[in-house]
Each structure stands twice: as C-alpha cells, then as structure tokens.
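RETRY 2/3 - previous attempt timed out on the joint model. Re-submitting the same 588-residue input unchanged.
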Amino acid sequence: MRNIPYIESMEDWQSGFSFHIPVKVRFSETDMFGHVNNVSPFIYFEEARIEFMKSTGLFDDKNSSTGMPIVADLQCDYHKQIYFDDNLKVYVKVDHIGKTSLDIHYMALNQNGEICLTGRGRMVYIDKESGKPVPLSESIKEKLLTT
Amino acid sequence: MRNIPYIESMEDWQSGFSFHIPVKVRFSETDMFGHVNNVSPFIYFEEARIEFMKSTGLFDDKNSSTGMPIVADLQCDYHKQIYFDDNLKVYVKVDHIGKTSLDIHYMALNQNGEICLTGRGRMVYIDKESGKPVPLSESIKEKLLTT
Amino acid sequence: MRNIPYIESMEDWQSGFSFHIPVKVRFSETDMFGHVNNVSPFIYFEEARIEFMKSTGLFDDKNSSTGMPIVADLQCDYHKQIYFDDNLKVYVKVDHIGKTSLDIHYMALNQNGEICLTGRGRMVYIDKESGKPVPLSESIKEKLLTT
Amino acid sequence: MRNIPYIESMEDWQSGFSFHIPVKVRFSETDMFGHVNNVSPFIYFEEARIEFMKSTGLFDDKNSSTGMPIVADLQCDYHKQIYFDDNLKVYVKVDHIGKTSLDIHYMALNQNGEICLTGRGRMVYIDKESGKPVPLSESIKEKLLTT
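RETRY 2/3 succeeded.
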C-alpha cells in the first residue's frame, strides 16, 4: 500500500475504528467504465460522519452555544475499485481534537474486508452569526472521545 | 414518434416553447452503458423551471401572500439517447393554469435539433403554514402567461 | 388522495405489491427547504427496479437473445414530503406486459406506513444492434409474472 | 488564508492557472442550510479536469499504448461558502509530472473573484490488463505541459 500522509502505521490506524455504517453502492453511481465514480466516496463519508455525530448527540444540537461545525477540507485515497452492488462498511473516527476543530478519519472496506478507501477531513466549529471559529466545549470533546 | 398523453400535435406543442437554457451533460451523469442515466433529465427540467420562474420574478418571491409552489407530479419521455458532452437546449413553458396549480411542460433538444426528452409536471401553490392549496393570484397568473 | 391516471382503485393497486427494498434518505438529497428534492424518488425507483430485475434473474442476462430493456418513460406523484433520515420502503411490481414492453409500478411508504410516492414507467426491450423493439420471450414473461 | 500543504505561495500558485471552465451551481446541489454541499466541488473538479484533458487531446485517446489514467487521490479545501446561482470559474493545471503519474491542481473563483475552493489530486496511468502503473510517454508529457 502506498504512503498516505495521514496514516503512520496502517495497522494501528485501522484498529482505531469501531463505528461504521453499511453503504450499498447505487447503480446511478457507476460511470461508463462500470466503476463507482470518484465523487461518491465523499457522499459515503458524509453519511458515515452524520450517523457518527448523531450517535454522539452532537448532530442537530439546537441549544449548542458552541457554534455549528463546517467542513474545512476533505480528502480521499482510492485503494481499490468499487463496483455496483458492492456492500461497503464505512468507518469513521475522531483522530484529533484541537481548540476549535477536529480531524475525522474515514475507511471503507468491501465485502471481502479489503480497504477500498481511506480519507480524512477537518471540521471547524464556527459562530453562526460571525462565521468565526469558536472553541469546542469540554462537553462536546467528551462526547466525541467516548463514542 | 410514439403517442404521448400530454401532447396532441407535436408540431403545435413544440412551437409553443421559447424560453430555454443550455445544459451541458456532465461526465458523472453517464452510466456504465455510456448513456446519460434516467434520473438526470429531471435535474435538467428543474434547472430550466427555476430559471424560468426567476425570469418571471416568481422565484424567491418572499412577500408572496399566495403561498409557495411545490411539485405535485413529474414525468419524462425518453425519445433519444443522450451522451456525455452533448449540448442540450432545455425548453420550458406554462401549458395550463388552474385555480391553485399550473402545468409546466418541458422539451430537450440535442445539438442536432433532435428531440431527446419531453416532459411535464404540475406545481401546486400551498400555504406554508397549513400545507393546503391556495388560489393563484391574478398577478402571478399574468406574470406566468406573459413570460 | 388525488386522482392518479395509472391507479384505478388505490386499495387494489396497493395490495398488488410485495417486492420492496429499504431506502435510507441521504443528507445530500435534502434541499434548502429541508425536504428531499424532487429528483431522488427516481433514484429510489431505479434501485428498486434493479433489485427486482435481479430477483427475477433478468438483470445482467448476458445470453439473452431478446434484447436489452431501456426506459421509455417515467413518472412520479409526490403525496407526502420526505425528510432526511426517513426510512422508506420502496415497492415495485409489473403492472402490465405487452408484446415488446412492460409497465412497472412503484410505491414508497415512510416509517409510519404512509404513502409518500407513487409512480410508473415503461421499459421497452430493444435489439442492441438495431435499436428496434424486440418481442419479449415467453421465458422472460414467465419470470416477470412469477416473482 | 490558512495553511494549505500543497500551496507554498498562494500568489505564485494562483498565477500558474490559465485553463478554466464556467460552472453554474445547480439548485439540487444546495443542502438544507442553503449552501452548496461538500460533495459538489469534486464534481466541478472532475468536469474541469475532463475538459482540460480533452483540450490536450489526451481524453478518449483510444490508441494509447500508455494505459489509462485513474484517480489515486483527491482533496479539496473549502475557503468560502458557495451559494445557489453562483457562477464559478473552475481552473485546472498540471502541477507536477512524475514517472507514472501526474499531480493536478484546482481552484474555483466566484463571480467576485474570490477563491472559494482549492484542491489537488494525483492521476496514475495504469495498464488496462494488468492494472499496474505504466510510464507516461514523452508525447503525453509534452501535451500536458504545453496546454
């Protein structure tokens, strides 16, 4: 496997995941070469992240005084082709929590347990009015780390 | 050309269009057979309808007391395959205005002037609070008919 | 419920369905009003149709001498708003088999058993070379009617 | 502007672009917060990349003995929110050519000339049969560098 900047040891990195969702590849996501297009993995990552956030109680947290999370960046490495009808497991974990942001990592396995995708992205908490980053509260940090 | 329930005379029907938008088929819209998938035409129709509504001044009409339009039904007939890189003209017209709804018709031509798609759909104006249909005002009707 | 051209008696029509797939609404399918956009139902119908065809053994039937099915038309009626995170059951059935084509009907229920969507569309079997319609074989008809 | 690993000097980096395509944001790409969702930028990048490859004569190069390009990784940094109806210019350039791969960079400006998106991704040329990377021919390199 090639060198991935955000993965030091693949074994350690992989073992840090536990939360995952099932994803069934849709026919409309295949391109003219019969492969899943390069855009769909970001849809899968989003689904996994939202389900993860919901499991922590942080999604739709209307009373939050600590702002809303926005995506600052996203990246994906394509390791194996994904085909129509593949049944994927898409994993998500919090890799790092900073003062106003967190780094989320992603991994997708196919039905044979092979790594098809790895990825990461940073979420920043911003104030809804000013758009400026706001510090993550201790309670949010705790929820993220114990899920 | 086969029989289409919402088209009596194709010649008359086609000549009723003037408003149209250009649509460039996206690579991600092609499927494993190299054709544009069956879902994309509804995206094209939506784009054309929104541009049409904007041209009438009825889109984003925040002060409207006559409710918001919602889609009640949509249909599309596929006449010719559409391919990646095709440059389409997607036409839209108001075919019929009722008391609380209007019927919008669609037609897409490819770069050779061939009809690839025809379609229609009904929009109903509803009250945002109650969700019940509300009558279209005379001013809305006028705007729709003179565009 | 309003009048739908392809449904005579809603009760009879609904009772004719048995095959269905689960569909989880994706966040990326919601629009700026928090509703699922008008295009996604056609993606759901396609998924249901493909799974149905696979269950009959007619999908990916490489040795077929009776041509390939293409979509001739599609339509959808929107009965109830669908929201992010709704869990739908999308039903599909063959309503009518003609000489070279078949009519497929669709219905989507939400988690409360309410009808959100109804729809239909015609598939035509065509010869891959000539593009002309070809008659459905008796074996295909049988598979379709006994699933 | 925050630190982007693949941009040393933003001024230098930005001045290296010339090829670009227009992209009109689609209504169906907005989410429930009125913003363009995080997935669409990768669709825009793909469109720009394909147009760029076509302009070099490298897209659909059927006689190529040097394999086909596949996407090895993709990343995007979100600098400014993009809204429905924004008219974007999406730029693309070859940043680096290796033995069997090339690095492509992307930038999207809105109608006010503000940078909304930056990104990059690596394409690898592989042999269609073996799936193994193949060296880029001198003629491909030349075409890429002179466009």
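Residues 40-56 of chain C form the longest helix (17 residues). Closing ticket.
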